[in-house]
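=== Structure Prediction Worksheet ===
Name of assembly: unnamed complex
Input type: mixed (protein and possibly other molecules)
Chain count: two
Listed entries:
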Amino acid sequence: MLRISLHPEELFTVAGFPVTNSIVVSAAILVFFAGIGMIIRRRFALIPGMAQNIAESGIEALLDLMDQVLGDRRKSEKYFPLVATIFLFVLISNWFGLLPGFGSIIFHHGEGSEPLLRSPSTDLNFTLALAIISVLSINIIGVGTIGVVKHVKKFLNFSSPIDFFVGILELISEFVRIVSFSFRLFGNIFAGEVLLVVVQFLLPYILPVPFLLMETFVGLIQAFIFSMLTLVFISVATEEHEEHKGH
Amino acid sequence: MDAETAKLIGTAFAIGVGVIGPALAVGRIGASAADAIGRNPEATSKIRTNMILAIAFAEAMAIFALLVALIIKFV
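=== Predicted Assembly ===
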């Protein structure tokens, strides 16, 4: 029978805190990134080697992409850490779920047995946390760039009834952003994993291959969308609100 | 009709109706991208990136429907 569960499975508890299989994998991803960062940092040289070359060209490509949205290299460099971290973290979380062993390695504990590994992106807690981080930092960056008064004025504007209503809509859409951010990522990756499981039952060994390829692509696209949307919202939040005159 | 049957019908209905809109949207996006590339072949790479982005947004709606279907089925 197919084994599909919407929520991550609890493996064990540490002082009352339930440790789920997606937490295990996200910790592994953190270690993975820290390791790569430390290796590249140690081998840092003026004449770049293989790894440094790849990292540098990746950074350059992403900065060029950000320039297209923000239109200013200084701004791009300022927001690069947030956007690039979101992109890499989401990308690796999406791709880790496609590795063999995810869902098939079973962890046996007292009451029963659960899969030991689960892609963090198929856990709504993970995507919700990322979405909250993203929306909060968008607003904090907005406040930091154009000032508290101007930023709040986007949401609470008493100059005319229409502006007031538009402001309320903006406020609602800020919360809708969290929902759509988290459900888009969760839904796409979770649906992909369910699809892979179902396809494995239809025609094992052969049919999953093209679907695996498609899921690799979907993982890349979703990571790209998550970071690009964050970037676009940052660029909207840092723009001064134009006054509409001459109606 | 017992609860189990109603659940199955609900699942099929949710995903079946839910994909109609995204299907139309993806079709329109692809058609207009093909149109644009035909008019201006030099802009192919830019159009393709934007097309894939727009398709991913439209597809997200289908994914929401699928999520609802899965929740009805398994929760």
